[in-house]
Amino acid sequence: MGKLGRFACIFTPMAMTIFSLVCLIIVAVGGTNKDSSVANGIYFFRANTSDINVSPTIQQTLNLPNNSLTDALFSQVNQTTDAATSALGIKDFYHVALWNYCAGSYKKNSTGGWEEDVTYCSDRKKEFWFNPVDVWHLNNTVTDQFFSTALKDGLKAYKTVAKWMYVAYVVAVIATAAEILVGITALFSRIGSLATTIVSTISSIFVIAFALTATILYASLTGAFNGALKDYHIHGSMGKTIYVWAWLAVVSSWGAGLFWMFSSCCCSGRSDRIKGYNQDKHAGTQYQRMPSPMPPYQPNYQHQEQGVALNNMGGKNTAYEPFRHDAV
């Protein structure tokens, strides 16, 4: 097969490994630039607070009738809600990414529809987790008491799992990059392929751990938001783009691992010359039996009849030895 065949054999896993690393890097792009529509579309979780109501149960509490007076009263409540959200600095939506969160408001586009306008992105930091109480400045407020009761366990679990997710992501990126470097040695021998397979296994484990953790974590967070904050008209939803790239990284990483394993047992890369012969050069010189230097044996019965029998070893009734020839 030779070196060219060896290169062709490892091209597929190397390309899949590089693609897996690119997918992981794209995941990290989310929230890095508020002016980039691409970066703004990459997020794990989205909180829609455009319809937030700071007094969601006032009508049920007062048991007010459904009439014009009640409508007038609630128009004043809505004005109070707008003033409160403006004073607290609550935006219309929040995108939670890997490193930070971004926020903004809705605005009308040229066609008359609504589009998102990201106006702020927080500082990036490791092991980031989204704390709505701090972000929405609800500390020491009545609403904070509601949040502390309904979301206490959920936010604690979210904070812990978010740290593990970040660690899994960092290890996955480092292991995938190392897989590419070690994969270069696979071009020269199957031992290099074996070493790359080991690194690829570690990389694949952490890539799928990151993707699976992120999916389950933010699915749970979405359920907690929608369950606990529905009375406040706060709606949570999961992103799409970031999960597509994360799971593409998983598929590419595991696919590359299988091909690395295949290249470690096949595609040796040794040429025919290394094996001891060159089939192209010696195609017509296969092994042939060499002629014997001695002439072919032809029995001479007449000469054998002139032989002399040996003694019978003292007269004992023993078998005769073969005749020996007169001429040696």
Question: What's the structural blueprint in terms of helices and strands?
Answer:
Blueprint: H1 2-29, H2 37-40, E1 45-48, H3 58-62, H4 68-88, E2 93-96, E3 101-108, E4 114-121, H5 132-135, H6 142-150, H7 152-185, H8 190-228, E5 235-238, H9 241-265, H10 272-275, H11 301-305
Antiparallel strand pairs: 1-2, 1-5, 2-3, 3-4
Helix pairs in contact: 1-7, 1-9, 7-8, 8-9
Strand content: 5-15%
Largest sheet, strands/sense/barrel: 5 strands, antiparallel
Distance between the termini: 57 Å
* Count of individual beta strands: 5
Can you tell me the overall shape?
A: elongated
The unreliable regions are 67-74, 271-277
Q: Tell me the quaternary state.
A: single chain
Can you describe this structure?
The protein is 54% helix and 9% strand. It has 328 residues and is α+β, with helices and mostly antiparallel strands. The chain has a 5-stranded antiparallel sheet with strand order 4-3-2-1-5. Helix 1 packs antiparallel against helix 7 (152-185), helix 1 packs antiparallel against helix 9 and helix 8 (190-228) runs antiparallel to helix 9.
Q: What would the keywords be for this entry?
A:
328 residues; elongated
